[in-house]
Amino acid sequence: MRAVVQRVSKANVLSEGIESGKIEEGLVVLLGVEENDTEKDVEYIADKTANMRIFKDSEDKMNLSVKDINGSVLAISQFTLLGDCRHGRRPSFSNAGKPEMANELYMKYMDCLTKKYGLHVESGVFRTSMTVNICNEGPVTIMLDSKKTF
Question: What is the pTM of this model?
Answer without folding.
Answer: 0.95
